[in-house]
Write a structure and sequence with these properties.
Largest sheet: 3 strands, parallel
Shape: globular
Distance between the termini: 32 Å
Low-confidence stretches: none
Length: 202
Amino acid sequence: MEEHTMGYKTYKIQKGGAGTFYPFVFNDIMGIEKDTNGGVRVDDINLAMKGHIKDGYNFNPRIKISEDDRSYNRTPTLNDRAHVLVCVVSASTVNILSDESVRKMREVRLAARDLGIPQLAILTKIDEACPEVKKDVKNVYKSKYLKEKMEELSVSLGLPLNCIFPVKSYHSEIDTDDDIDTLISSAMKNIIHYGEDFVNSL
């Protein structure tokens, strides 16, 4: 998996005027790397899902967060906890995920399951992985190649296919594109839906 975020970062989505936000946030976390001692630690992800890690904490791949750390939240509320776990994987790297990366990802998913947290996956960069989709994003569900990648990810993580959402990321586009937005919107709606179901079941 690619990883760019080094810490634990919370993002709010602005709604309308300044200072007004949608009633949910996204927490971005340092990626899982192939090395046993690389990337974020599985036990730190588990603590983050339980709400014990504060926004802005920088992960140490070798040492898990201490309860004495100022970024450790001893008394997390429901708002601090994760309501849905989303694993983001590039379509071009699904077939080369290391055994160690897959082990870590499955371990995190199973921990989320034990906490009752829904688990989803987003397959990104589908245009880079498939020439048909690069030519026309609407070919996403016609592509045999992407179907195979989604099936591979499903087997690796133990997720059903209907919990994996293919998405094309914006990178060189200047204007918005309805077809790209449709895929992103579908993934977003499902993430929010699963998160709401989790909260309502408590």
